[in-house]
Design brief:
- 25% of the residues lie in helices and 29% in strands.
- With 266 residues, the protein is α/β, with parallel strands linked by helices.
- It has a single domain (6-252), classed as Rossmann fold (3-Layer(aba) Sandwich).
- Strands 1, 2, 3, 4, 5, 6, 7, 9, 10, 11 and 12 form an eleven-stranded mixed beta sheet that branches. A two-stranded antiparallel ribbon has the order 8-13.
- A hairpin with a 2-residue loop joins strand 2 (21-30) and strand 3 (33-42).
- Helix 1 runs parallel beside helix 4 (192-202) and helix 2 packs across helix 5 (226-249).
């Protein structure tokens, strides 16, 4: 069994981990605000869970406090983060209901929902301030665990793809999706860009699993019916639970190394 402590971040449609044993909930204060965490044992591994939106989808994507969530996980000493997101397919070859383990990121704005720059380094002169330098932003060992978990669950999964972060809560126009398609984006959603960057700065290996619920605006001449999007959103919870449980069983024996390197100042 892997000797690691993993954080799991879930989004729309998945607000709790089914069968989390010994569950304890806590409010963790950080300098960015409070974060709500649940901890326990799941699939034989000690996990810490963050629900981005909270029970009943209380917080829209524009209201998620990403810095508090990632800072709280860092304070709790997790070894890595597995995150999931439902997403709109920009690549027309992606199958709806299929999974994507992303390996690249499009997040040019690099801003938080409130418009601030997306960084933990917000205080001039603070020790450790600097730059996160990387080739690919996602952790290869954690990506491998997600791929194994999906395949063991019998799920259709794509190895690789560019995740495109878009601002919510509205969906995108056809023109915006054409621009993102031209940049090579595979699928879009509204929350994982800041998580990727903040985990990188915090030295937390991070991997992202997407579930395609619809084709983004203009990808096909006929839009995906909202009823179909909602049906697939409901199915995503089971796909994520099966894949994550398998991924936990496939984790490397020890903590994965942080992704990339840090150029920092004392």
């Amino acid at each position: 069994m892997a000797d690691v402590r993993i954080a799991i971040i879930t989004g729309s449609g998945t607000y709790a981990l089914p069968g989390l044993e010994g569950q304890a909930q806590e409010t963790v204060p950080t300098r960015f605000g409070d974060a709500q965490l649940s901890s326990g044992t799941w699939a034989g591994v000690e996990v810490v869970h963050v629900s981005r939106h909270g029970d009943g989808h209380a917080r829209l994507s524009s209201q998620v406090n990403h810095r508090a969530n990632i800072q709280a996980l860092s304070q709790r000493g997790v070894d890595g983060v597995l995150a999931v997101t439902i997403c709109g397919a920009v690549d027309p070859s992606i199958e709806l209901g299929g999974l994507i383990v992303f390996d690249d990121l499009h997040f040019l704005a690099n801003r938080l929902p409130d418009g601030q720059i997306c960084t933990l380094h917000d205080r001039p002169g603070a020790a450790g301030r600097g730059h996160w330098v990387y080739d690919r932003p996602f952790s290869d060992p954690l990506r491998g665990a997600l791929l194994t978990g999906a395949r063991d669950a019998g799920r259709t999964v794509r190895d690789g793809g560019c995740y495109g972060h878009v601002d919510g809560p509205r969906f995108n126009t056809r023109a915006e999706i054409r621009m993102l398609a031209g940049c090579g984006v595979s699928a879009v959603s509204q929350t994982a860009g800041p998580e990727t960057v903040l985990c990188g700065e915090a030295g937390l290996p991070y991997a992202l699993l997407g579930f395609a619920t619809d084709y983004a605006n203009g990808v096909h001449q006929q839009p995906t019916p909202v009823s179909e999007l909602q049906r697939l959103m409901g199915e995503s919870a089971g796909a994520f639970a099966q894949t994550l449980a398998g991924a936990l069983r496939a984790l490397p024996a020890g903590p994965p190394a942080p992704t990339g390197a840090q150029i920092s100042w004392p």
